[in-house]
Specification:
The chain has one domain: 3-Layer(aba) Sandwich (Rossmann fold), CATH 3.40.50. The protein is 32% helix and 14% strand. The strands form two sheets. An eight-stranded mixed beta sheet has the order 2-1-3-4-6-5-7-8, with helices on both faces. Helix 2 links the parallel strand 1 and strand 2. It is globular and about 65 Å long.
């Protein structure tokens, strides 16, 4: 870390000021909108926000010249989030070096969705975390589909989920047959990266504190945030936080951080709940049989053996099994 990090010890310490305010057109119960609020509360007023095309661009500033941001914000093209983050950080550095701007600490926070960071903008994100700009934070808000354009599958869509591109039917009963890409592990494998973490909307202090750590890490950082989507997950709008909690407590979403080459689990469910408690609340998994759900449960058990080994050694282990039921080979970094 570049200095002492002031972490939140209670929700009462989270600032009351909102920098993501009224004027947006997100869906009721939008998980990414809640993540935006938490991230920007933790980052504070000396922050510039960038947003590649995606749900949170269309819903926040696409029409009528409205904006919910009480901070400087600008839009980048879908694949341009990584480069735009570097360019913004470089511009501030150049202006301060040339004494054309008073030296100060400015946060550059780039929010990208599945397309913006996991797929179409992945190369730019990879480039972004390889530079040395401090206070440059990339946040992947992961609703596990291209929700803006009609709930198409992305590389972070989980196995078994139905989407408009992977519908469950007579020909392909399962729906999406690919395994979810672990973007955070890929970012952590980049040489010299200072801080990488995963988060969701629960526990309440986990995401804000990880934002604080990321911005104080002394270099570019990355946080992968699971953000429930009522539209794409076919869930009631009041379940965003509950789904986040169940994702963590069933072990399907793992909370961890990788700081200066050291891996650490942030939450170990004990006992871990069965994955059906999370899956059965979502219409996108309604077609799965009890046997299908057991496949996911058994795979989760195997993955947790690797997570616990990573916790024991403090090192990364890749890759994951290539398909459900395949034990695969593990490589330690």
């Amino acid at each position: 870390m570049s200095g002492e990090v002031r972490l939140f010890r209670s929700v009462k310490e989270i600032p009351p000021e909102d920098y993501y305010t009224a004027g947006r057109r997100t869906c009721a119960g939008c998980g990414p909108a809640l993540a935006y609020r938490l991230v920007l509360k933790a980052a504070g007023p000396n922050t510039v926000v960038l947003g590649p095309t995606g749900c949170m661009y269309v819903a926040n500033a696409h029409q009528f010249l409205t904006s919910p941001y009480a901070l400087p914000w600008f839009h980048t093209q879908l694949g341009g989030g990584g480069a735009a983050g570097i360019g913004t950080a470089a511009a501030f550095r150049a202006l301060m070096t040339k004494r054309k701007r008073i030296p100060e600490e400015i946060n550059v926070v780039v929010f990208g969705g599945d397309g913006g960071f996991a797929d179409i903008g992945f190369a730019g994100l990879s480039m972004g975390v390889s530079y040395d700009y401090p206070r440059l934070l990339y946040v992947l808000y992961d609703n596990e589909s291209y929700a803006n354009t009609g709930i198409q599958a992305s590389s972070t869509t989980p196995w078994g989920a139905t989407t408009t591109f992977t519908p469950s039917g007579k020909v392909k009963r399962i729906g999406n047959e690919r395994l979810k890409k672990n973007v955070a592990l890929i970012m952590a494998a980049h040489p010299g990266v200072k801080y990488v973490a995963t988060a969701t909307l629960w526990p309440p202090l986990d995401l804000p504190n990880k934002v604080r750590k990321a911005l104080e890490s002394g270099g570019p950082s990355f946080i992968h945030v699971l953000t429930p989507c009522p539209k794409g997950w076919f869930t009631p709008p009041d379940l965003a936080v509950e789904l986040s909690r169940l994702a963590v407590e069933t072990g399907l979403w793992v909370l961890w951080e990788y700081e200066n080459g050291k891996f650490k689990l942030n939450y170990k469910p004990s006992p871990r709940k069965h994955v059906k408690q999370y899956l059965q609340l979502q219409g996108r998994f309604a077609h799965l049989t009890a046997d299908d759900i057991e496949v996911i449960e058994e795979r989760t058990k195997k993955e947790w053996e690797m997570w616990m080994e990573m916790e024991r050694t403090g090192r990364l282990i890749i890759p994951w099994p290539s398909s459900p039921g395949d034990s695969g080979d593990n490589m330690t970094l």
